[in-house]
Amino acid sequence: MTETATSSALFAHVAPSAEAERHFATRLAFETDVSDVAVALREEPGAFALVDTRSEASWQQGRVPGAVHLPTRRIAAESAATLPAGIPVVVYCWGPGCNGAQRAALEFARLGHPVKEMLGGFEYWVREGFAFETDEGRRVRPADPLTNVTAGRVLDGDPAAPGAIACAC
To answer: Where are the alpha helices (DSSP H) in 14-150?
Structure first.
C-alpha cells in the first residue's frame, strides 16, 4: 500500500499505515465496547466474566445484568474465590472519565486473566439504551441519540435480544 502525502495540518505527523495497523490491533486486543459485550453476553454465556469494579453504592445504583461485583481494591484478595482461574474478564467502571476499569484490568492481568476494558463503562451501557439492574429491579432508559441510533429499541428489556439497538460498527 502506498502512503499518500498531504499538506493538511491534521496529517503533518501521522504514523505509517503498518504502525497504525499494529496500534489499532493492539487496542482491539485490550478494549471492547458495550454493544459487543451485550452480544457476547447473549451469544456466549459463561465464556467470560463481566466485572463491575465500582463501589458498593455505585453497584446498588445500577449495574449491567449478569455482572459480578468486585471493586478494584478487592480484586487481588478476592478474585480467586469469585472467578474461575484464567477465565477471560471484561471490566467496567463508571464511564470514559474514569480510569478505574484500567486499574482493575491491570490487577486481573497481574493475576493471569486475559482481560479487556469495556469502553464507556456503565454510563455508556445505559446511554446506549441497554437494560440495567438496580436493587429495585430492572430498568431501561431510552437510547441517547448522541451514542446510539434511537429508531431501534431494546426488546423486552433484554439488551442482547436479537434486533436490539446497536451501532452496527
So the answer is: 17-30, 34-43, 56-61, 75-82, 100-110, 121-127
Identify the CA nearest to 82 among candidates 124, 51, 45.
Answer: 51
pTM for this one? 0.85
Q: Is the pLDDT of residue 106 over 50?
A: yes
Distance (Å, rounded) from C-alpha 100 to C-alpha 57? 15
Determine the average pLDDT of the residues in 43-58. Answer: 96
Q: Which three cell numbers stand for residue 28?
A: 482491539
Alpha carbon 11 to its chain centroid, in Å, reads 30
Residue 163 pLDDT greater than 60, yes or no: no
Burial of 161 (0-12, 13-18, 19+ CB in 10 A): middle
